Amino acid sequence: MNASLPDVPEVRVVGLPLLTSGFDLVERLDLAMHLKVHGPLEPIAGEHLAALAEQISLRGRGGAGFPFAKKLRAVAESAIRRGVRPVVVVNGSEDEPACRKDTVLINRAPHLVLDGALLAAEALGARTLVVGVTRDSTEASMQSALAERGLGNRRGSNLRARVQRNPVRMVTGESSALVRSADGGPPLPPGRKVHTSDSGVGGAPTLLSNAETFAQLAVAARIGADRYRRTGLRDEPGTVLLTLSGAVARPMVLEVPTGVPLRYVLQLAGAPPLPQGVLTGGYHGKWLDAVTAHDAVVSRAALEGCGGALGAGAILPIGPGTCPLGEALHVANWLAAESAGQCGPCYLGLPAAARGLADVLDGGGPTALEALREVTRAVKRRGACKHPDGSAAFIESSIAAFTDDLAAHVLGDGCGRPVEGVLPLQDDSPQGEAPSGRRLAVDWTLCQGHGLCADIVPELIQLGPDGFPSVAEAAVPRYSEARAQRAVRRCPALALRIEEDPGAAPPPPTSLPMLPRGRGRRALGSGRQ
Questions:
Q1: Nearest to 215 by CA among 20, 52, 14, 39
Q2: What is the pLDDT of residue 276?
Q3: How far apart are CA 309 and CA 436, in angstroms?
């Protein structure tokens, strides 16, 4: 019930593959195989790269859909105005349970993602590249890819490249949270609106986009704008990566040209012939009813035009045998638990909205429904990041899409259907948050309540009403080891220590499918002479 998706589900393609070229040959394209499949890539000057992005109408594929060319030019202009080197950041976090497209790309085609990022870095004159990940598999694959190119975080290098590991949480994929963690802070949104193109990593202008966006840029740079535009719609050319889950026979990541009918995509994944509804755009997205979904096509504009959302490419149908509002309640509770705890609309508003939806399903009547609507209205546009807005929009869409079921719950005894738990959620102990076998302990005889530890590792230590840590010890997952050690070093009262946890089992080794190393042509930024 509400089982999580694997890191790398089945991958299929409609038409000719672009991003997934070579997936039928090997499980992972190392540098030699990547060059055999995609060929070499030459650097492109900054304005020419921006023009290419404009010609193919490239927008961010992480959900917001911001024009890439506009972002590229903004970073370049800010860097020139301030006289500083910009930074390039690849967001491969993808912490939503219903999304796996970026995870698939980094696991199976990491060099395609790096190609796009290195193109941008070369065009901007950047000397720092950061790749944000949250999973064991993506960290291992990207570290190997950097090593295959001879790239690393060494002083004196023409390009310093590193992988930034963060926990698997919904809010860590937010751009400001990734920038904050790359600077050594907690992987949480800072609560202030700052454009990364003006001030990002280290305060420098930062070009930040998700893994698929950089991969699309690399494909277009190789084949050219004219050939790229032959695939898909005129106003949204190319392909998109979709993650199909929910009530489907085969959860999968699917590469499709824009303009493909949504019903065909659902059929490929084995969805019910007449789904009760289809959630588009993931858990910050919107529901489509069965009739609308039948007539919809896959594109950002088309889905928005019929009341849906492309978002990060998650598509989740549900069948006729489950309670749709009960399914939505499971997701609403999960979204509330994913709060960063930094603002009232998120920390208080989302749990209140989830309780309000539960009251509606428990027979609270019109009063409970009106209270739910008031809560969701109060949450929107007041949060420190986009998580409250997206979560409130999901709940509003749920009660708007299933009017018959809503009426049955509000005016009667309910719809009478069980909740099957078909929408995937994160496991209690998701991959990527494996324990390190160590724990962070507080020595109460020394602690003076300075609170620095809560600033450095907020995921492990929170302060109570008295200003002192609310826990005596906390297990340290692997992603927090470096910050936990920093908290120990910086404690003014020397009240923190890291101990071995005798009750923790050692984490299993991470296996990475690799091909034998071969001699291939040089890739852009390969670091080889």
A1: 20
A2: 94
A3: 39
Residue 259 phi, psi (nearest 5): 95, -5
Residues 217 and 237 grouped into a single domain: no
- The burial class, CB within 10 Å (0-12 / 13-18 / 19+), for 445 is exposed
pLDDT number for residue 477: 74
User: 213 with 168, same domain?
Assistant: yes
Place of tokens 């997205």: 285
**Spatial contact of 285 and 307, defined as CB atoms under 8 Å apart:** no
Domain end point (choices 318, 336, 351): 318
Q: Vertex 168, ends 216 and 109: CA angle to 5°?
A: 30
Structure tokens belonging to residue 346: 């998120």
The CA distances from residue 108 to 20, 22, 30, 102, 141, in Å, are 9, 9, 9, 10, 8
Query: The dihedral of CA 110, 115, 116, 120: what is its sign?
Result: positive
Structure token digits, residue 211: 């893994």
- 152 plus 191 within the same structural domain: yes
Q: Please tell me the predicted confidence (pLDDT) of residue 190.
A: 79
Assess if residue 371 is contained within a domain: yes
pLDDT digits (tens, 9 = 90+) for 237-272: 999 999 999 999 999 999 999 999 999 999 999 999
Confidence band (pLDDT; 50, 70, 90) for 429? very low
- Please state, in angstroms and rounded to a whole number, the distance separating the CA atoms of residues 102 and 7: 10
Give the whole-angstrom CA distance, residue 173 versus residue 371. Answer: 31
CATH of residue 186: 3.40.50.11540
Measure the CA–CA gap between 5 and 245, rounded to whole angstroms.
8
* CA neighbours closer than 13 Å in the CB half-sphere of residue 278: 35
Cα(169)–Cα(186) distance, integer angstroms: 12
C-alpha separations of 414 from 323, 364, 394, 409 in Å: 9, 11, 21, 4
For residue 152, what are the β-bridge partners? 160
Distance of CA 483 to CAs 132, 154, 362, 383, 525, Å? 16, 21, 43, 26, 31
Domain of 260, in residue numbers: 231-318
Confidence check: pLDDT of 55 > 90:
yes
Number of domains in the chain: 4
Q: Are residues 297 and 379 in the same domain?
A: no
Do both 107 and 197 map to the same domain? yes
Are residues 101 and 142 both part of a single domain?
Answer: yes
Of 134, 92, 63, 99, residue with least CA distance to 393 = 63
CA separation for the pair 262, 242 (Å, rounded): 11
Write the single-letter amino acid at 80.
I
> How many Å separate Cα 510 from the centre of its chain?
21
Q: Is the pLDDT of residue 277 over 50?
A: yes
Spatial CB neighbours of 250, under 8 Å, sequence gap ≥ 6: 10, 244, 269, 270
Q: Supply the pLDDT for residue 383.
A: 76
pLDDT of residue 408: 95
Strand-pairing partners, residue 136, are none
Distance CA 446, CA 514 (A): 49
